[in-house]
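Thread: "does anyone have the structure for this chain?"

Original post by V.I.:
We have the sequence but no experimental structure in hand. Need at least a predicted one for the grant figures.
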Amino acid sequence: MKTNPKQRTIGSIYHRMKNKLNLSDKRFQRGAVWTREQEQFLIDTLIKNLDIPKLYFWDVKNEGIYEYSVVDGQQRLTTIFRFLNNKLKFNPEFTPEFANKTYEELPEDLKDEIYNYELTIVMIEDADEEEIQDLFLRLNNGTTLKSQEKRMNIGGNLSKYIVNMANHNIFSKVTFKNKHRDYEQILAQCIKLELEGKATNTQGKYLDLMYKEEKDFDDNGTVAKKFKKVLDYMGEIFSGDNKVPELKRFNLISLYLMLSQMIDKFVIKDKKDLFKKFLIDFWNDLTNYRDQEKVSDEKRNLDFDDFIQFISSRTDSLESIDGRHKILLKYFMLKNPDLEIFDNNRNFTEEQRIVIYRRDKEICWHCGKHVDWVDFEADHRPTPHSKGGKTTVKNGVCAHKSCNGRASNKEGLKQGWLSGA
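Reply from O.Q.:
Generated one for you, tokens below.
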């Protein structure tokens, strides 16, 4: 990698280089995060002829339409260009002598001084992407760069895949912005869940390790295809909406995990409206419950109490993700007990088994006694599977293994038929 510092005036950069610069290279840039006050403070720095830190341009002439990618200095250049285009006014507090004036409203001599202000540009040549990412991390060390922004610069195939997937249309439905690569953070957490195939820790140190271990991630492999399949389904669920306030960060992750575990087991191709209605209704019920000033002990909803706790702190921990997942899955299956598994397989899925076990309060349908989890079986009742009974939550009951065996394929049995045995 070669670096070559040069002096260039603002006017020269604006007129000769502006259209040659990639100001939003998603491989490392983080988007517009400066406040209006920060922009105005930079313009005040120009007026006072104070020093502005060096800018770093990477020579990418062979990559596409741009000649240079701005490695460091994106916010500064964007602010300067906005000012020259009269889209930014002086702050009365910083620059009272030109309060609320635009560039066009300045005296001609002062406009010339700004045009002739020299910036130091470091031209970077003969560098590969990994070297540039390393440079970007070093330049931003100790600044306000957030964890996911640093993580994206570890490099590798996974990093590139997640950057591309951040353009997925599901994010056009959320109300939060991608200020510090929030979209990539959520995608990374979902990828972590997909790789594990279950609820897991998605905290920073675990994502850091994933990025390092998955540098050779196959963007055409099984995990990548399943990941996109679930995201596409999520996008179709909310295809008719502009913004969906219920799609909060933690709800996106929980919805992803639920769909990932269901999409290959249950017949849900044409059930998208069920998920949309469920998420909105659940969040509405939870909000109404939380807004009550006082809830008597007999009216407490322990699931809602737990869910509120899970979203109050450490939402990316295993305990929180797994807890939310079990509650959401339970409520969804109870709301939609007729949901069928593929090929109407005789065996209930793990998700169905848990819901049936909790719904029936761990009481055997046949004998009316408590059932330990280790002795639990989900039985097809009231209609046995051999007689056409479907493998659904609605047609499933909690049973002891021994009671299930005694019932076998018998028809016409009533709940509690073994209670007097």
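V.I.: this helps a lot. Residues 144 and 180 are 10 Å apart (CA to CA).
O.Q.: and The first strand starts at residue 2 and ends at 9.
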